[in-house]
Design goal:
The chain has 493 residues and is an alpha+beta fold. The protein folds into 3 domains: 10-290, Spore Coat Polysaccharide Biosynthesis Protein SpsA, Chain A (Alpha-Beta Complex); 295-364, no CATH class; 380-484, Jelly Rolls (Sandwich). The protein is built from 10 helices and 29 strands. A 6-stranded antiparallel sheet has the order 19-20-21-28-23-26. Strands 6-10-7-9-11 form a 5-stranded mixed β-barrel. The protein has a 4-stranded mixed sheet with strand order 13-15-17-18, with no helix packed on it. A hairpin with a 2-residue loop joins strand 20 (386-394) and strand 21 (397-404). The chain starts with 16 loop residues before the first strand and ends in a 9-residue tail after the last strand.
């Protein structure tokens, strides 16, 4: 097999490494805490930081922040930007927005084009935004070895040593008689075969064999190499990428570029490229890893009490064992549970055996079919400037609690169908209403008539809380015309 000869010195690989954080998923198996518009990667699981913040901090041990790319979609971009605000300047040109999710192969191809434009020798470290990794130094060492192999032309993935007969993961069998490289105690090997998600019997067999590894879904490769392999195994995707690149050079409207992307057939990078490529390699790693794929896996990363329970929030329990109970706001009382999951949020409650936690995805599918809002977002909706919570609604009215962070401000906007009335309950709010600009203190209020330009902002150091009462024949969130916005959102969205 002829592979690319590296032109990069080993000690210079990090400067050519471009972490690509895949942040477009919905994490349906973590419903009701995870929603389509507030997915798992935005949750605090297994630490003080959210999963995407953990991922960002992890990759910064391997490459500079200015090299990081965030692959997400337009619906989630604002929230992701908000969570990565500490790196706002470094990520100013680092967001790659899919108009529509087409699985991982097109998203990775789009990122590869961007990396190649920046650096002909660029290496990509592709990592999901919603995994938990413990052992930063071991992670960095694995990245170093994988980068060396990637610079030689291999498509490298990380293999995780199984700890149970897991049926929800794909497996990798290394050709461990052929050593591609080593660093410390780590070794890199060609992939002998990939195995699709097995049944329990096969998974048990792989566990006992000791030479099968879980496929982590993390990869390192040269941008040029992955594009070449996509061209070989998924030529239609590469053709679309070339078309997109040409449209960008021509300065074509974004709509035209988005239309090309939407026509791409959804393809996984694993099944579409990695499992077909002769260049696939694996580095069995030492760091601890969990994809936190369902509520049943939470006890892999969360602190447990003496009875083996993971209890979060206002939980009162008697005699439960090996269970997971999450209480968002109100008290949740449990008695004598065994291997159960209970998740209570303001608008939805989940109760299931831990062994059936993977089936939560089917519940979300039913909600989608019913067009129920509970699969899309929470009653409290996060925005880059703060949040809002729907308190009550009915024909012709909606009542919200709106919070605006210090220094935050909503867009200068107008509504065709509704008027609004604001009452300040905490902080000092600055209001723009047509040509007027004035401050409102606690207990003060103002009215915003229909079709009136207006803006709400927080000039102070204390979070502003207001009660907003909307009235009108249509109260949908899409009745917004934006004239000016700090967060790059376009008008009429």
């Amino acid at each position: 097999m002829a592979l690319h000869a590296s032109r990069i010195a080993n000690d210079d690989l990090s400067s050519h490494l471009y972490p690509v954080i895949m942040a477009g998923g919905s994490g349906t198996r973590f419903w009701p805490l995870s929603r389509h518009l507030f997915p798992k990667q935005l949750l605090r699981i297994g630490g003080e930081y959210t999963l995407i913040q953990q991922t960002m901090r992890r990759v910064l041990g391997c490459a500079p922040a200015s090299n990081v790319l965030i692959s997400t979609n337009a619906a989630q971009a604002d929230l992701v930007r908000g969570q990565l605000g500490d790196w706002k300047e470094d990520l100013a040109n680092g967001f790659l927005l899919e108009p529509e999710g087409r699985n991982t192969a097109p998203a990775i191809a789009l990122a590869a084009i961007e990396v190649l434009a920046r650096d002909p020798d660029g290496l990509m470290l592709v990592v999901p935004a919603d995994h938990v990794v413990t052992g930063q130094r071991d992670f960095e060492t694995a990245v170093e070895l994988a980068s060396e192999l990637a610079a030689e032309g291999y498509l490298v993935t990380f293999g995780i040593k199984p700890v149970r007969p897991e049926t929800g993961y794909g497996y990798i069998r290394p050709k461990d008689t052929v050593l591609l490289g080593k660093r410390g105690t780590l070794r890199g090997y060609p992939v002998q075969k990939f195995v699709e998600k097995p049944n329990v019997a096969k998974a048990t067999q792989y566990l006992k064999a000791g030479h099968y590894y879980w496929n982590s879904g993390m990869f390192i490769w040269r941008a040029a190499t992955i594009l070449e392999e996509i061209g070989v195994h998924q030529p239609a995707i590469l053709a679309s990428m070339r078309q997109i690149r040409a449209l960008k050079k021509e300065g074509s409207p974004q709509q035209a570029i988005d239309d090309v992307y939407r026509q791409i057939k959804p393809v996984s990078i694993d099944t579409g490229v990695m499992e077909r490529s002769s260049k696939a390699a694996v580095v069995p790693v030492r760091f601890k890893w969990s994809d936190v794929g369902s509520w049943g896996s939470l006890d892999e990363v969360a602190e447990k009490n003496r009875a083996g329970n993971v209890m979060t929030g206002r939980v009162i329990d008697l005699d439960s064992k090996q269970s997971i109970v999450y209480a968002d706001r109100r008290v949740v009382a449990t008695i004598g549970l065994q291997d159960m999951v209970v998740v209570d949020t303001p608008d939805a409650t989940l109760v299931c055996p831990k062994s059936r936690a993977q089936d939560v995805k089917s519940i979300v599918d039913i909600l989608k079919q019913q067009q129920a809002p509970e699969h899309l977002e929470h009653l409290t909706v996060q925005r880059p400037w703060g949040s809002y919570t729907v308190l009550e609604e009915g024909p012709g009215f909606k009542v919200k609690r709106v919070t605006v962070n210090p220094g935050g401000r909503l867009s200068l906007q107008m509504h065709h169908e509704r008027s609004e009335h604001w009452v300040v309950i905490a902080g000092t709010a600055r209001v723009t209403r047509d040509q007027e600009v004035f401050d409102l203190k606690v207990g003060e209020s103002t009215a915003i008539p229909v079709k009136t330009k207006h803006r709400l902002e927080n000039p102070g150091q204390e979070t502003v809380h207001i009660i907003e009462v909307q009235n009108g024949p249509y109260l949908g969130e899409d009745d917004i015309v934006r004239f000016n916005d700090d967060y790059g959102r376009i008008a009429n969205t």
